[in-house]
Amino acid sequence: MLDASGLSPWVREKSKDVFACLARAEARAHGASVDQVHFHEVGAIDSIIDTVGSVLALELLHVDEVHCSPLPYSNGFVKCMHGLMHVPVPATLDLMQGVPVIPAPKGATGELVTPTGMSLMKALATSFGPPPAFIPHTHGSGAGTKDFPGHANIVRVVIGDATHPMTHRPTPSPSNDESIVVLETNLDDMNPQILSHVQELLFDQGALDVWWQPIQMKKNRPGILLSVLCLPDGVNTLSTTLFCETTTLGIRRRTMERAVLQRSSMTVTSLYGPASVKVGYLNGAPVNVQPEFDDCQKLALAANVPIKTVLAEVQALARASLKKEAPVA
């Protein structure tokens, strides 16, 4: 359906990312593979409209990053095709792993976050929690049909520019240092096929990076050093996943400091379609301009052109746009 539509490659692929996120959660909730699950959420027409419409809105409004506030963790029940179920329902709860939540407003019971809504945020949001410093430009609100006593059923979207108002560049952070944690474990008795599954779970739960490398262990056994990079608030969730999903009996933790560039993203429209670009700033000046590889790969395949052609054009357009925005000395 999506591939046959007139939507841009970016909208089609981002929509597929959302559906894939939801499909994996539904599969885990049903204890089955993705192919075995009947995705009543995925297949519902209103779910498709909500998902594709949201992604299309991001493109039309030129939204480069999505930052989501902590989500409400409600209580009560919801009636679905399986009967009455506790909320959040299993698929939603699966998607909430690694995401900050807050108690639901007083008087608001029942389903406040649906699997479709949660998959949209999980697939599209850059971060959860307080937004980075930005300049609001416009906003909109949407109201649901369900009425809660003493609490408005409203979702609000604020669109702004995370840039300095005079230079159109990100306001330099007072510090480019942040604390991170490295989780490590040695494995010599686990089926290596499990590694890719574990990596996917860890990324879904907020890991910044996951990698492994071959090592030589005791008794001359070949082994794997599995490493996970995360923020401090993700240590407990990710450690639990490592204990449950691998054969490890212990996990090493190291807290480190890292220096990071001030980051932002932008979208440029090339001859082949729109693509995201990551920009790294040092002292307010762009020093790294990197096209999003997945976006460029999809555009190259759709247009049947070499990917290096798409990468070069997208990067050139981004650099030209940044140069145009630079203040005149």
How is this structure best described in words?
The chain has 3 domains: 9-161, no CATH class; 177-259, Alpha-Beta Plaits (2-Layer Sandwich), CATH 3.30.70; 262-325, mk0293 like domain (Ubiquitin-like (UB roll), Roll). Helices cover 33% and strands 30% of the residues. It is built from 9 helices and 15 strands. It has a 4-stranded antiparallel beta sheet. The chain has a 3-stranded antiparallel beta sheet with strand order 13-14-15. Strand 10 and strand 11 (222-230) form a beta hairpin. It is globular and about 60 Å long. The chain starts with 8 loop residues before the first helix and ends with a helix. 24% of the residues are buried. Residues 164-168 and 170-175 have low confidence and may be disordered. Keywords: Nickel.
Key traits:
329 residues, alpha+beta, Alpha-Beta Plaits, Ubiquitin-like (UB roll), 3-stranded antiparallel sheet
Q: How is the topology of this model organized?
A:
Blueprint: H1 9-30, H2 40-43, H3 45-60, E1 66-68, E2 71-73, E3 77-80, E4 83-86, H4 90-95, E5 101-103, H5 115-124, E6 125-128, E7 135-143, E8 154-161, E9 177-187, H6 194-204, E10 209-216, E11 222-230, H7 235-245, E12 252-259, E13 262-270, E14 273-282, E15 285-291, H8 293-303, H9 307-325
Parallel strand pairs: 1-6, 2-5
Antiparallel strand pairs: 3-4, 7-8, 9-11, 9-12, 10-11, 13-14, 14-15
Helix pairs in contact: 1-3, 1-5, 6-7, 8-9
